[in-house]
Amino acid sequence: MTKMKRIGVFTSGGDAPGMNAAIRAVVRAGIFYKKEIIGIYRGYEGMIEGDFVPMEVRSVSNILQRGGTMLKSARSKEFLTKEGRTKAFEQLKKMKIDGLIGIGGDGSFAGMHHLYLEHKMPYVCIPGTIDNDIPGTDFTIGYDTATNTAVNAIDKIRDTALSHNRLFFIEVMGRDSGYIAINSGIAGGAVAIIIPEEETSIEELIEKLDASGSQNKTSSLVIVAEGGKSGSAMEIAKKVQERFSYFDTKVTILGHLQRGGTPTYFDRVLASKMGVAAIEGLEAGQTDVMVGIVHKEVIFNKFDEIMSQPKDIHKDDLRIAKILSI
Ligand code: F6P
To answer: Is any ligand 1 atom within 6 A of the Cβ of residue 104?
Structure first.
C-alpha cells in the first residue's frame, strides 16, 4: 500500500457525458479511503496555472446526472512541451499532490505518461471519450450516451426522410474511429455505414443505393463517420448526387450535440466503477496505467502495452450491418 495523501483529479480533452460521475466517484472513494482530493480545473491548462480547489464530499453533490464536466476541460498546447510539463509538475509539488487521476482520451493518457516519465508523478488514467477508441477497455465513458444521442437523432431524421422520399447522409463523430457510426448505423437501420476502418468506394455505395431503390425503399439513411477515408458526409453526398438521382439528397452533421446531455445509466455505472477502481489502484501501487473494464472485470493497462496497438472495430458488427441493410 502507498502512503499517498493528496490526489489531484482532472478532466482533459473533449468532454464526455459521465465525466462528472467519474469525478464524483474519485472524490467520494478518495475521501472514503482517507485521502485529500484536489480538483484541477481546465485539464493541463489549469495544472500549469495552479488552478486547484480542495474537494469535499458535498462538492460533488448533484452532478452524477449532468453532462459535461464540472472541472471543465481543455486541450493544452503548452503541456505538449517539456517546459509546460515541468511547470505543471512544480504546481503539483507546491500543492503537495502526490498522485493524479486524469479522466480523458488517448491524448490525456499520453500527457500523464510523459509527466510520469519525466517527473515520476504516479497516476491512473480513466478513459473518458465518446470515441471509444482506446484499447484495454470494452467501453470508454461517454460512448454509450453519445451513441444513444446519435440514434435518437437518426430516428428523427428518418421521419422526415420517409415523408419526402429522401436520401440522407448523417455524419457522426468519432475522430478516427467508427464505433459511434457502426453501432448507431445498426440501431438506426442505415442502408450503408462508412467508417475509417474500412474502404468504401463511391461505386460500391451507389450500387448499394441502387439495389435498395430497386427494392422499393422510400428513403435511405447513410451513416458517415467523420474520420472516413472517402471524405466528409458533404463530400460523399455531392459525389453520389452527381451520379445517382433516384432520391433528393440531404446532409446532416450531428457534431457536438453528441458530446452533451444526461449520461445513460450505463455511463454513470461505468464511470462510478472506474472512479473507485482508480483510487483503489493508485493506493495499491498501480501507476502509469489506465483502468479498463473488460468482460465486466476491472483491469489496469500499462501505457506502453496498450497504446502501441489500435482499438479494432468488432468485425462481426460490420457483418451484421451488411446482412441487415439489404
Ligand atoms: O474526441 C472527442 C471528439 O468529440 C471527437 O469525436 C471529435 O473529432 C473531436 O472530439 C472534436 O473536438 P473539438 O471539440 O475540439 O472540436
So the answer is: no
What's the DSSP call for residue 96? T
Dihedral (Cα; 132, 135, 141, 147), 10-degree rounding: 20
Which residue, by CA, sits nearest to atom 1 of ligand 1?
14
In the predicted model, residues of the chain with pLDDT beneath 70 are: 1-2, 213-215
Question: What's the confidence (pLDDT) of residue 216?
Answer: 74
The closest residue, in CA terms, to atom 9 on ligand 1 is 175
Q: What are phi and psi of 231, to 5 degrees?
A: 110, 180
Q: In CATH, what number does 145-259 get? A: 3.40.50.460
Q: Which ranges in the chain are annotated with CATH 3.40.50.460?
A: 145-259
Interacting residues of 113 by C-beta distance below 8 A, sequence separation 6+: 288, 303, 307
Kindly state if the Cβ of 125 falls inside 6 Å of ligand 1: no
Class of 6-142+263-307 per CATH? alpha beta
What's the pLDDT at 24? 98
Which residue out of 98, 131, 144, 267 is catalytically annotated? 131
Atom of ligand 1 nearest to the CA of 227: 8
Question: What single letter denotes the amino acid at residue 52?
Answer: F
**Nearest C-alpha neighbor of 292 from the set 66, 122, 135, 65:** 135
- To the question of whether residue 212 is assigned a binding role by annotation, the answer is no
> Is there a catalytic annotation at residue 317?
no
The answer to the question of whether 14 is labelled as a binding residue is yes
Cα–Cα distances in angstroms (integers) from residue 31 to residues 176, 192, 317, in the given order = 38, 49, 41
The atom of ligand 1 lying closest to the CA of 175 is 8
